[in-house]
Amino acid sequence: MAASGPVRHARRSLIWLGVIILALVGTLAAGIVWGGASITPKLALDLEGGTEIILSAETENGQDPSADQMKQAQSIMRQRVDAGGVSEAEITTQGSRNIVIGIPGEATSEQLERIRASAKLEFRRVWRTASAYATSTTTAGTTEGLTDLDGLSDEQAAARAEAAQEIIDQYDSYVCVTATTSSDATSTDESTDESSDSGDSSSDVQYTTADPVPSTSSVTVGDISVDASDLPKIACDTSTGEKLLLAPVDRLDNKADGALLDGEQLTNATAGQETGTNGTVTNNWVVNIEFNSVGTEMFKTVTTDLTSQSEPVNRFAVVLDGQVIVAPTSQAVISDGKAQISGSFDKDSSKSLADQLKYGALPISFDVQSQNKITPTLGQQQLVGGLIAGLIGLLLVVVYSIFQYRALGLVTVFSLLIAAVITYLLVTLMSWQEGYRLSLAGITGLIVAIGITADSFIVYFERIRDELRDGYTLIPAVESGWRRALRTILASDGVNFLAAIVLYILAVGSVQGFAFTLGLTTIVDLLVVVLFTHPIMQLLATTRFFGEGHHFSGLSPRILGAAYRGRGSFRTPGETTGSGRKGREKRSAGEAERRMTIAERKARAAGFITDDEAGDTQTDTSSKKGERS
């Protein structure tokens, strides 16, 4: 016998739910085996402890930074630390100069790089390059390429030219320091040779760099101070060790007081996969950058000049904290302020570069004063207490469901278990992939979700009961009750999700973690109700135990006080017919006597007649039929 429409729909929904759970389990299992994932979520600072870093602000005039500067610096530092996910780091100010950063667990190298990269972000044209392994054998050049700046006095222009020439003269003797990953320093050449043979030197060699020239924000010539942004710079590419001589930072309209082409002109930087000319997404990872209106105008001018040049002066370098983080070649004129940096990127390296660009410009610079391990602020005892509280809440919901809904309460129990499994898998996967850390506030959000999820089931069950009270049999009652309940569930979950989004955007730290888990579990609730609870009810409605309204099913029309039952049969509320043979005969006689017509049902549903009036009408009709016969 072919399955009915609702049964087929229920089976498909349950299959999809199984596919989703298996996909989550499979992804996590693959991550554990090959990707360094863990079977448990990472814990936040309050439950695990971590690393505390104290940064001290440095200003050009040596005075204390303003409160607004510290506030902005604190905000940018939080963006840098949380760039990998909701890590729930603690970032606070201490005194007038210090920012204290608490990072859960071991601070990753990417996090430390983002924190320490506190100098101004600049875009500079490349004048000259040299190998990482040897000093230059060519003459560095003169200041002939130094662009004049409108608005400088003759003395200022002369001081700038003198300082620029001194920097250029140091280029030949400047060396990028190299170090291999091997602890044996004598194996440097061998490692290099092997790398060259394999065609990938970067796999065996890591680069450290000497201090850039100039290393300060300004250079003094006589009594005149020259901004370092208006001078050439010698630095090394941190990824290749390549030595570069960089031009001064471009200024708007070449004016001495014009805007600089630096991090202030950059509005966004994101990592993503490259889109081909035919619109298809490739496997190549790139970094997309966007400029504001001023930056767009300046970048158009720069790329127009560079595109017509040959190597290496067709390149521009991105300089952060005095070090070159990337120096790509300009291949086209960028007129809309949206550029794309491509190269040998993978997902992690492209995201790291995007974060450096996006959060690179701090209003003030910082020195790392100390870096220490810190213990959990709450610890294992509070974690266990939070989990016990969640289990107690879950147990109370189960007890209430069984008491209120009898066997139907088991649907609530299994729905909650399915929701718990999906939530746990999602939290663990996000902990692995996005750096999410579970705090006590996040656990609180998970506990609150038990009530939210149970509320959806209660709404659905009560709608089904209402349909049974109105006289529907169970199968149509399940479908009609679902249509009515779904609107309420969507409205309730929509409000919860909106509240979670607002709280997540406006809050920071542990409160943001609470909002995150609240929003996540709201989505899971809707998923479970649609793909599990409703399909299970569709299947249970076809069983004899639930379909015939067993006393312990929780869906007995008699216990619910249904006005009529069976196929079109009618019963006065409160009427008892007894048990045994006489009772069955009385029920059969009563049901046969009080059979409602379709017109009577519609009139009763519209409120034009009462149940008693419908019965009287039926009796009168039967009598008239008897008279006619």
Question: What are the main properties of this structure?
Answer:
four-stranded antiparallel sheet, Alpha-Beta Plaits, alpha+beta, 18 helices, Multidrug efflux transporter AcrB transmembrane fold, 16 strands, 629 residues, 16% strand, single chain, elongated, 49% helix, five-stranded antiparallel sheet
Describe this structure in words.
It is built from 18 helices and 16 strands. The protein has 629 residues and is α+β, with helices and mostly antiparallel strands. Among the domains are: 5-42 and 379-546, Up-down Bundle (Multidrug efflux transporter AcrB transmembrane fold), CATH 1.20.1640.10; 50-118, Alpha-Beta Plaits, CATH 3.30.70; 563-628, no CATH class. A 5-stranded antiparallel sheet has the order 9-10-4-13-14, with helices on one face. Strands 2-3-1-16 form a 4-stranded antiparallel sheet. A 3-stranded antiparallel sheet has the order 11-12-15. Helix 1 runs parallel beside helix 10. Residues 136-140, 179-206, 564-599 and 614-629 have low confidence and may be disordered.
